[in-house]
Amino acid sequence: MSIDFIIRLIGAVVFCIFGVQWGTELGQLANASSTTSPLSVEEYAFTIGLGGILVGLILTPYFTTFPIRVLKKKLIHLSTQKLFSTLFGMVAGLIIAALLSIPLSMLPAPFGMILPFAGVVLLVYLGIVLFTSRENDIFSMLRSITSSSSSSPPESGSFDRRKALLDTSVIIDGRINDIAQTGFLSGKLIIPRFVLAELQFIADSADSLKRQRGRRGLEVLTSMQKDTRIPIQITDVDVEGATEVDDKLIILARQMHCPIVTNDYNLNRIAELQGVMVLNINELANAIKTILLPGEDLKVKIIQEGKEANQGVGYLDDGTMVVVENGNHYLNQTINVTVTKVLQTAAGRMVFAKPD
Description:
The protein is built from 13 helices and ten strands. The strands form two sheets. A five-stranded parallel β-sheet has the order 3-2-1-4-5. A five-stranded mixed β-barrel has the order 6-7-8-10-9. It is elongated and about 125 Å long. By secondary structure, it is an alpha/beta fold.
């Protein structure tokens, strides 16, 4: 038995009682004023009571359960920060209105009756508007107060590694899914709603390449959400006063004292300049590549010619480029080579070798 059906039954009973009372009074009035009334008092009570049952069955949910459901849907989409800001603003408005209602009630009628009620409505509205419009500043101030009162205040280099913000580029890249599955990122991965909006904008782009990259990012997110080993949290917290997604991420990371996971070089540099910790996927990939020393032997498949004469180029399993001297004679062949030199560049590690 659903709650709607129970509410309809209660409404039908209540409206039936009111209908019977109203019908009785109306029947008595009609029979008293006219001796030729077509209906008796009991018939009036029965007819209007029956109408009350119908009205209760039909209209009761519209002013009981339906408004509650609409309010619940509205509250679900509100962020926790905005919800608490609204509550604080309402409480502050009620406190000020209660203090002002005492002198206002002493005014002569009708002002002493109207102004206290009008003051409550006006001050509660102003309190909610003020607190919600400045919610980020208020919560930032509260965080700074709590941080300064703690025994070990957070410095520019101290961040909570139990959570990390994900950038749009690292979601599209897709390697974050594999890294999270290995357990190296043990904390919660937080994805702001504005990052999802940018990802959806890329997925709906007219450019086929951008559209493909955006859809890949959405598929990566879907795969990560299905994996119970990866804690994913999508937050509705927004940053006012900033329009670019990178700026919002940096401000949010500073407020939450957590690092940003990205592979965007520009975001990496700007975040570091502002004292925000960055976990760069590209730096991680370069760090875990195989360390080779001159004189070591390895196998590599020559897939193309190099820039210089007689050079051949192949790649290791981790993506490291291997430039083989006189390797153009072994195109599409897997050969044994000896490492002669290892060069570290901004793009990664390059290995120079010669056929064994």
